Amino acid sequence: MKPLKVALIQQKCSTCRDENLARTARLVRQAAESGAQLVVLQELHTSTYFCQVESPALFDLAEPIPGPSTDTLGRLAGELGVVIVASLFERRAAGLYHNTAVVLENDGSIAGIYRKMHIPDDPGFYEKFYFTPGDLGFNPIKTSVGTLGVLVCWDQWYPEAARLMALAGADLLIYPTAIGWDPKDTVEEQQRQYDAWVTVQRGHAVANGLPLLAVNRVGFENSPQQQDAGIQFWGGSFAAGPQGEILAEASQENEEIVQVEIDYTRSEQVRRIWPFLRDRRIDKYGDLLKRFRD
After folding, report:
1. H or E stretch at 70
2. Spatial distance between the Cα atoms of 75 and 180, rounded to a whole number of angstroms
3. Does the active-site annotation cover 51?
4. Structure confidence by residue, pLDDT tens digits, 54-79
5. Which of 9, 128, 187, 294 falls 20 to 30 Å from 49 in CA-CA distance?
6. 219 to each of 11, 14, 31, 43, 138, how far by Cα in Å?
7. Sequence-separated (6 or more) residues with CB below 8 Å from residue 109
8. Is 13 a catalytic residue?
9. Which of these is catalytic: 43, 90, 105, 127?
10. 116 carries an active-site annotation
11. What phi, psi does 181 have (nearest 5°)?
């Protein structure tokens, strides 16, 4: 089996949807020209990260799936013959919205969607105001480039999500992401947060014997309502192998395309010497369904 050529698009975003999509398309074309077969975009890439505030007017950014963005990206996927993992603010119905990843097949069709399951509600990340938790479960999406275990951002911190994707046959774990620092945090605190983000995901790769792709946005974005506040998105998009080894990594400052080759056969080799799935004590894990063991 030949290695899979992957491109991670780490992008800066503006408040103009058309400008963002045009920039995305240009970067996807560059990636395809370099041989990419799978292109992964960051979380909510058609706009700035609007969840810094709670504003009913910002629901106007949402769109249906299928809809304008999937039409645009589907045509691009079909033209270039690449699989694209996109991330959109989905309007499912009046008053019902999701944070949704969409996989476009290399013929332009929608291969499947994943609705973000874990929804944060932290200072600057008020996602519970906008997004209904996903209702499609943890089901990987079958494509021409493999079975993709697509999750989204906050899902990164939950080993259960990665494990369930692995148990359902995912070949690859993928996390479109929007995470960054409060610029008021100390340099030491910023480094701790960044290291934790990388470490927990490398752990998911190790624990499941799977390669992993994390694609983050980059650059400073002002709060929509407080111009003296905002988030410094830390970039750092990376690919890890099934032993957690870093295969490729982006800078923390720049918009860029990260090119990497993924060797699916290594997962089989690694799982033979580290058979974590074989040794799971599934007869003793019932308490995982409890909120807390009082």
Report:
1. helix 68-80
2. 31
3. no
4. 999 999 999 999 999 999 999 999 99
5. 187
6. 8, 10, 21, 14, 30
7. 74
8. no
9. 43
10. yes
11. -100, 150
